[in-house]
Amino acid sequence: MGTYIVKRIMTIIPIFLLATLLTFGMINLSPVDPAEAYFTAAHIQPTDELLAQKRQEFGLDQPLLVQYVNSIMKIGQFDFGLSYVTNKPVWEEVATRIPATIQLTVGSIVIAILVSVPLGFLAGIKKNSGMDHFSRFLSFLGASIPSFWLGYLLIFFFSVKLGLFPVEGIGTWKHLILPSVTLAFPLIALYTRLLRASVLEHLQEPYVLFARTRGVHEKVIMGKHVLRIAISPMITGLGMNLGNLMTGAIIVEAVFSWPGFGRYFIEAVFNRDIPVIQCYVLLAAGVFLLSNLLVDLIQLYIDPRISRKGRQYQ
Fold first, then answer.
1. In the 8-state DSSP scheme, what is residue 79?
2. Residues 268-295: b if buried by 16+ CB within 10 A, e if exposed
3. Which one, 148, 171, 256, 283, has the greatest CB density within 10 A?
4. Contact between residue 70 and residue 59 where contact means Cβ atoms under 8 Å apart
5. Can you name the residues that pair with 82 across neighbouring β-strands?
6. What angle do helix axes 90-125 and 130-144 make, rounded to 10 degrees?
7. Where along the chain do its domains lie?
8. What mean pLDDT comes out for the span 194-223?
9. Distance from chain centroid for Cα 121
10. Which residues are CB-contacts of 3 (< 8 A; sequence separation ≥ 6)?
């Protein structure tokens, strides 16, 4: 098991380096000159002399290989440069916004798990029942409604009409409810379908029949065996979505004026703030890789056969 974990961790390094290379290549292939973007964001009309001075300051006059190596060294120190707009270190500004995004991500994941696990499990073991039809309707609804529209509906009913929750901003737990529900709703639709299909599949497995033949209690079969194994695809989906939630909750943050990393990225795109955009892309890659590693470790705990399967194909 230890060897499997070490190998999984070691695979992250080349993938992340590839992400840095792609990001560096896209920035250099872009028609936007970083020096010009800097002066545009600062609302300064640059002269040729100022552009040349700024290109030298950014190291753009050096060979591409040297620029890439210097970029890797700075990234290793969490140095993404200065924002073109605020002229402050990018990582310091990102660090002040990440906690809000993490808070929103955790809230949406908790809501999605609390709703989708019992709903998907009951829909699977009670096929074609009222619960099953409700879960399918909810899944269809969650996959069909755009997040921004759902967010405005929740604001209209629960904030404007009923006055139960704040319209925007961050502060108390009430500020977290509506954006978390908005972000969790598509996940509920996805995880409910995954768990339902997985439960239906595992109910047909021989080990369920053998357990019933041995007289094992039905609750033990369903809870200890079927649910534990059937939840595996849902955990995989959670790992795929965690990176998207951490870095892709842009629409929800905009609707609820949530001061997270997503809104900061949108502002950076409009301002052509290249250091912020680069930080966003690399942070998204890092979160995606780490979340998938975490999911693999959880899967290994749930099903130790994974490490044995990995050794068989060596």
1. -
2. beebbbbbbbbbbbbbbbbbbbbbbbeb
3. 256
4. yes
5. 89
6. 150
7. 1-26+283-314, 90-276
8. 81
9. 24
10. 307
pLDDT of residue 303: 62
pLDDT > 80? residue 169: no
The DSSP line for the chain is -HHHHHHHHHHHHHHHHHHHHHHHHHHHHSSS-HHHHHHHHTT----HHHHHHHHHHHTTTS-HHHHHHHHHHHHHTT---B-TTT-SBHHHHHHHHHHHHHHHHHHHHHHHHHHHHHHHHHHHHTTTSHHHHHHHHHHHHHHHS-HHHHHHHHIIIIIIIS--S-SS--SSHHHHHHHHHHHHHHHHHHHHHHHHHHHHHHTTSHHHHHHHHTT--HHHIIIIIIHHHHTHHHHHHHHHHHHHHHHH-HHHHHHTT--SHHHHHHHHHHHT-HHHHHHHHHHHHHHHHHHHHHHHHHHHHH-THHHHHHHHT-
Given a cut of 70, whether residue 306 has pLDDT beyond it is no
Instruction: State whether residue 304 is helix, strand or coil.
Output: coil
Side chain identity, residue 198: S
Task: Identify the three-state secondary structure at position 89.
Answer: strand
Cα 304 to Cα 162, 231, 298: the distances in Å are 50, 15, 10
Tens digits of residue pLDDT in 27-51: 777 777 788 888 877 778 877 888 8
pLDDT band of residue 312 (cuts 50, 70, 90) is very low
* 86-125 pLDDT per residue, tens: 888 888 888 888 888 888 888 898 999 899 988 988 888 8
Amino acid at 306: I
Q: Which two tokens stand for residue 235?
A: 């955990």
Q: Enter the DSSP assignment of 82.
A: B
Residue with tokens 């990102």: 94
pLDDT in tens, 263-304: 788 888 888 888 888 888 888 888 888 887 887 777 777 665
The token pair that represents 54 in the structure block: 């700024």
126 or 41, greater pLDDT: 126
